Amino acid sequence: MIVASSTRPLDEMAVRTSFARFRIASIVEGIALLVLVAIMVMRYGVYGGEGLFTSTSATWDQISSVWSPIHGLIYMVYVILAFDLWMRMRWGLPRMLLLMFFGVVPVLSFFGERWTHQQVESDLSRRPTLQDQERPA
Protein backbone atom coordinates (compact mmCIF):
# COMPACT_ATOMS: atom_id res chain seq x y z
CA MET A 1 0.00 0.00 0.00
CA ILE A 2 1.36 3.45 -0.96
CA VAL A 3 0.88 6.15 1.63
CA ALA A 4 0.65 9.77 0.47
CA SER A 5 3.52 11.95 1.68
CA SER A 6 1.12 14.33 3.45
CA THR A 7 -0.18 11.55 5.71
CA ARG A 8 3.19 10.06 6.58
CA PRO A 9 4.42 11.27 9.94
CA LEU A 10 7.30 13.74 10.01
CA ASP A 11 10.52 12.88 11.80
CA GLU A 12 10.56 15.72 14.34
CA MET A 13 14.18 15.22 15.37
CA ALA A 14 15.38 15.28 11.75
CA VAL A 15 13.26 18.37 11.05
CA ARG A 16 14.60 20.23 14.08
CA THR A 17 18.19 19.34 13.16
CA SER A 18 17.60 20.42 9.57
CA PHE A 19 16.02 23.67 10.72
CA ALA A 20 18.94 24.41 13.05
CA ARG A 21 21.32 24.11 10.09
CA PHE A 22 19.01 26.26 7.97
CA ARG A 23 18.80 28.89 10.72
CA ILE A 24 22.60 29.23 10.86
CA ALA A 25 22.79 29.36 7.06
CA SER A 26 20.10 32.08 6.98
CA ILE A 27 22.02 34.27 9.38
CA VAL A 28 25.35 33.70 7.61
CA GLU A 29 23.74 34.34 4.20
CA GLY A 30 22.09 37.52 5.47
CA ILE A 31 25.38 38.87 6.79
CA ALA A 32 27.27 37.82 3.65
CA LEU A 33 24.70 39.53 1.44
CA LEU A 34 24.90 42.73 3.49
CA VAL A 35 28.70 42.68 3.16
CA LEU A 36 28.35 42.18 -0.60
CA VAL A 37 25.93 45.11 -0.87
CA ALA A 38 28.32 47.32 1.13
CA ILE A 39 31.18 46.32 -1.17
CA MET A 40 29.10 47.09 -4.26
CA VAL A 41 28.10 50.49 -2.84
CA MET A 42 31.75 51.29 -2.18
CA ARG A 43 32.83 49.98 -5.57
CA TYR A 44 30.20 51.61 -7.78
CA GLY A 45 28.71 54.34 -5.63
CA VAL A 46 31.43 55.96 -3.57
CA TYR A 47 34.62 55.07 -5.40
CA GLY A 48 33.35 54.13 -8.85
CA GLY A 49 32.97 57.53 -10.45
CA GLU A 50 35.46 60.02 -11.72
CA GLY A 51 36.78 62.30 -9.05
CA LEU A 52 38.59 62.37 -5.74
CA PHE A 53 38.42 58.65 -4.89
CA THR A 54 39.15 57.13 -8.31
CA SER A 55 42.54 55.79 -7.21
CA THR A 56 40.99 53.48 -4.59
CA SER A 57 38.48 51.97 -7.03
CA ALA A 58 40.99 49.22 -7.90
CA THR A 59 41.01 48.21 -4.23
CA TRP A 60 37.22 47.76 -4.21
CA ASP A 61 37.43 45.89 -7.53
CA GLN A 62 39.86 43.47 -5.87
CA ILE A 63 37.73 43.12 -2.73
CA SER A 64 34.66 42.52 -4.89
CA SER A 65 36.43 39.90 -7.01
CA VAL A 66 37.35 37.99 -3.83
CA TRP A 67 34.07 38.35 -1.90
CA SER A 68 31.60 37.72 -4.75
CA PRO A 69 32.52 34.03 -5.24
CA ILE A 70 32.61 33.51 -1.47
CA HIS A 71 29.10 34.92 -1.21
CA GLY A 72 28.01 32.71 -4.13
CA LEU A 73 29.27 29.64 -2.31
CA ILE A 74 27.51 30.70 0.89
CA TYR A 75 24.26 31.15 -1.06
CA MET A 76 24.61 27.69 -2.63
CA VAL A 77 25.04 26.14 0.84
CA TYR A 78 21.99 28.12 2.00
CA VAL A 79 19.90 26.76 -0.91
CA ILE A 80 21.03 23.18 -0.23
CA LEU A 81 20.08 23.49 3.46
CA ALA A 82 16.76 25.12 2.51
CA PHE A 83 16.12 22.21 0.15
CA ASP A 84 16.91 19.74 2.93
CA LEU A 85 14.41 21.42 5.26
CA TRP A 86 11.84 21.65 2.48
CA MET A 87 12.16 17.92 1.74
CA ARG A 88 11.90 16.92 5.41
CA MET A 89 8.82 19.10 5.92
CA ARG A 90 7.27 17.93 2.61
CA TRP A 91 6.15 21.43 1.71
CA GLY A 92 4.96 22.46 -1.76
CA LEU A 93 7.17 23.95 -4.48
CA PRO A 94 6.07 27.57 -3.81
CA ARG A 95 7.49 27.28 -0.29
CA MET A 96 10.88 26.19 -1.68
CA LEU A 97 10.90 29.14 -4.08
CA LEU A 98 10.09 31.43 -1.17
CA LEU A 99 12.94 29.99 0.91
CA MET A 100 15.32 30.62 -2.00
CA PHE A 101 13.99 34.17 -2.42
CA PHE A 102 14.70 34.95 1.24
CA GLY A 103 18.41 34.62 0.50
CA VAL A 104 18.39 37.02 -2.46
CA VAL A 105 17.03 40.25 -0.96
CA PRO A 106 19.24 41.99 1.61
CA VAL A 107 17.93 41.67 5.20
CA LEU A 108 15.03 39.43 4.08
CA SER A 109 16.85 36.27 5.19
CA PHE A 110 16.60 37.43 8.82
CA PHE A 111 12.83 37.90 8.57
CA GLY A 112 12.50 34.74 6.47
CA GLU A 113 14.28 32.71 9.13
CA ARG A 114 11.79 33.89 11.78
CA TRP A 115 8.84 33.20 9.48
CA THR A 116 10.18 29.75 8.62
CA HIS A 117 10.66 28.99 12.32
CA GLN A 118 6.99 29.81 12.93
CA GLN A 119 5.94 27.61 10.00
CA VAL A 120 8.05 24.68 11.20
CA GLU A 121 6.70 24.93 14.76
CA SER A 122 3.13 25.27 13.48
CA ASP A 123 3.46 22.26 11.18
CA LEU A 124 5.12 20.14 13.86
CA SER A 125 2.30 20.86 16.30
CA ARG A 126 -0.40 20.23 13.69
CA ARG A 127 0.95 17.28 11.72
CA PRO A 128 1.71 13.80 13.07
CA THR A 129 5.33 12.97 13.89
CA LEU A 130 7.20 9.76 14.56
CA GLN A 131 7.92 11.01 18.05
CA ASP A 132 4.18 11.35 18.87
CA GLN A 133 4.00 7.59 19.29
CA GLU A 134 6.85 7.66 21.84
CA ARG A 135 5.32 10.38 24.03
CA PRO A 136 3.15 9.38 26.99
CA ALA A 137 -0.53 10.19 26.63
Features:
membrane, cell membrane, DUF3817_TM, single chain, 137 residues, mainly alpha
Description:
With 137 residues, this protein is an all-alpha fold. The protein has one domain. 71% of the residues lie in helices and 0% in strands. The chain has four helices and no strands. α1 packs antiparallel against α2, α1 (12-46) runs antiparallel to α4 (108-126) and α2 (57-89) runs antiparallel to α3 (93-102). It starts with 11 loop residues before the first helix and ends in an 11-residue tail after the last helix. The mean pLDDT is 87. It is a multi-pass membrane protein.
The gist of it:
With 137 residues, the protein is mostly helical. The chain has helices spanning 12-46, 57-89, 93-102, 108-126.
User: What is the terminal-to-terminal distance?
Assistant: 29 Å
Q: Could you tell me the radius of gyration in angstroms?
A: 20 Å
For the secondary structure, the number of strands is: 0
Amount of helix = over 70%
Mean pLDDT value: 87
